[in-house]
Design brief:
Helix content: 55-70%
Structural class: mainly alpha
CATH topology of the largest domain: Tetracycline Repressor, domain 2
Largest sheet: none
Shape: elongated
Strand content: under 5%
Order of helices and strands: HHHHHHHHH
CATH architecture of the largest domain: Orthogonal Bundle
CATH superfamily of the largest domain: Tetracycline Repressor, domain 2
Amino acid sequence: MNRKSADKPAGYHHGDLRNALIEAGIRLLRKVDANKLSLRAVAKEAGVSHAAPYRHFPDKNTLLAAIAHQGFISLGERMEKAISEHQNEPREWLPAIGLAYFSFASQRPEHFRIMTGGYMTDPKKYEEFEWIGKRTYENLVAIVARCQKEGLLPTGNPGDAALAFWSKIHGFTLLLLSGELKFLNIDQRNASAWFRRILAA
């Protein structure tokens, strides 16, 4: 085996460069802020040449958009699972989504920070990022509209109601992740009940 082959990280193979770079970026985001991330550092982490990332990502923000896209896909899947587990319990839909949002943010903080941290200053430039974020929000609006139809929420513009709901669960999630609410002893076991209280307030 030559040195070049030996230097390749486990799991990397020809044709999988894009995913290898995304995973390398995620690993680095566990150590550094996105503002300090560079494609050169990502290339080094992935075990490829400094020029290799540019085959898929012309700049750092394109890589961050790909990471955010991956995160939105995962969040959407968790939201769908939360609804499916309570298919016949409409009253549980929004608390379950709140818990799914918190679980995602706590288990995949690197993705969550890129998705919601304002790093994408010009989202329209990155169609993949803009499209998946919009689709996730539209799915949430549809769920809120169903809750309105079931009489669980006041009638009105479901988009406005979805924005209010998202603001609540996002703010509560940030407080939980920051440790500001440690005195309440909130964890995965009782978070659902707390989300129910927040949404009822």
